[in-house]
Amino acid sequence: MSHPLAIEHDVIGVGFGPSNLALAIALNECAIRSRLKCAALFVEKQPQFTWHGGMLLPGSDMQISFLKDLVSLRDPTSPFTFVNYLHKRGRLQDFINCRTFYPSRIEFNDYLRWVAAQFRSQAAYGETIVAIEPVTAGQSVTSLRVHSRTLAGGETVRLARNLVVAVGGRPYIPQVFAKVADDPRLLHSSRYLDTVEDIGLGGRAARVAVVGGGQSATEVTVDLRSRFPDANIDLIFRGYALKPSDSSPFVNEIFNPDYTDFIYAQPAERRDAIVRNFRNTNYAVVDSDLLDQLYRLLYQQRVSGTTGIALHPRSEITSIDAAPGGIEIGTVDKFGSERRRSTYDAVILATGYDRETPHAFLEPIQRYIRDTVLDRYYKLVTAPAFRPQIHLQGYSEASHGLSDTLLSVLATRSQEIAESLLSTISRRELIA
After folding, report:
1. Domains of the chain in sequence order
2. Comparing C-alpha atoms, which of 108, 56, 115, 129 is closest to residue 414?
3. In this structure, what is the dihedral angle of CA atoms 402, 408, 411, 414, given to the nearest 10 degrees?
4. Helical packing angle, 215-227 and 288-304, nearest 10°
5. Could you give the 3-state DSSP secondary structure of residue 422?
6. Pathway, per UniProt (predicted)?
7. Looking at residues 98-108, what average pLDDT do you find?
8. Residue-level pLDDT at 283
């Protein structure tokens, strides 16, 4: 039965980051072309639109071309392109003079905020989805009851005929850090800018550990050196060396939208082999320019005979202990027997994100889900009597390829999902 106060929407999007922002554009375009009405709402836990706000570091640039924005690969004439954003902001000529395909992360975040502002009426900020319940009629599930909690603690209930989940990953905290997970001296890189100035590192020779061997870990290390010149920073990682990302043109073709069809058509074991083969494009790798910058910092230390940044490769973390004087980390050399124990005033985990599904809020409808692998159009496979479509964005790397968690396929994927959703609305109108 329907909740008497619930407002019904054709689509409710859980999360309003780049993936669902691209979907908002695609739904609007598809609805206009097909002359259908599509009532969409996007529920976002943040109080306003921000894309990776904790890592919008000064000087950090995008690692993919601005042409892989929300729409350009699908429709370069769209008013929501990055180029049109530059034009509207009065910076198009100046950007051309920069002679780059890679805007700063701060500017790209501003572009996304500019687009999001144009869909403000379709967004509910400051709400967290807590449960999705089935609404039944006879033996069929006809819609979903969506419960959300506001920042003030109030609850809102809405009805959705379809659902699109795109909440991103949860910050991954390795198990070895579990017992100090609530220690304020431990922070994940996702909260870096929000908290780094509040943990008392300034004006002294503080000791900081950065854990990780990828782009975020290296960016944080370089930023810490600039922000706290008296600090001693240990970069602890498992690999033999910091490795450059492979962004060469032929390898980069794996991020082309049509590569998704190729990946999805392969048997599961072959998909896994392809993903593993190309992990050096996205995981535990660093942009070459940033590696050069870090190497120059280390070289200048040698020239001046000073310390500041120390690299600790091949390091397996074996123990973590919290004490009044700091967080103690024990490591062992993976390729030898050397052991170290060091105490730090702060530990920053650049350990990536956990994208496991299903989400806890989907538990009430779990019995209707028949397969954890999504179909080609990112839809959960559900029981025949379950009418709502549930699409997941950013959770199908194993079946759809490495581009699934990146910006590269936003324009195409949003179009595919929008057309799938609009087809159900069209069928319903024909029946009506």
Report:
1. 7-169+355-431 (3.50.50.60), 172-245+282-352 (3.50.50.60)
2. 115
3. 30
4. 40
5. helix
6. Siderophore biosynthesis
7. 97
8. 86
Identify the residue whose tokens are 């396929």: 409
Structure token pair of residue 55: 């890592």
In the chain, the N- to C-terminal Cα span, in Å, equals 20
Query: Given its phi and psi angles, is residue 114 left (phi above 0), alpha (psi -120 to 50 degrees) or beta?
Result: alpha
**Cβ 395 vs Cβ 168: under 8 Å:** no
Instruction: Pick the closest to residue 374 from 360, 355, 361 (CA basis).
Output: 355
C-alpha of 100 from chain center: 24
Contacts 24+ apart (CB under 8 A), 195-200: 195/54, 196/224, 196/227, 196/346, 196/348, 199/345, 199/346, 200/345
d(CA 64, CA 70) in angstroms, rounded, equals: 12
* Backbone Cα Rg of the chain: 23
The 3-state secondary structure of 178-227 reads HHHCCCCCEEEHHHHHHHHHHCCCCCCCCEEEEECCCHHHHHHHHHHHHH
Tokens of 411: 């324009």
3-state secondary structure 89-110: HCCHHHHHHHCCCCCEHHHHHH
Closest CA to 380 of 358, 406, 354, 405: 358
Rounded CA separation 107/91 (Å): 11
| Eight-state DSSP code of residue 61 | B
Instruction: Please state, in angstroms and rounded to a whole number, the distance separating the CA atoms of residues 257 and 253.
Output: 9
3-class state of residue 231 by DSSP: coil
The verdict on pTM exceeding 0.90 is yes
pLDDT of 378-396, one tens digit each?
Answer: 999 999 999 999 999 999 9
Look at residue 427 in the predicted model and tell me its pLDDT.
61
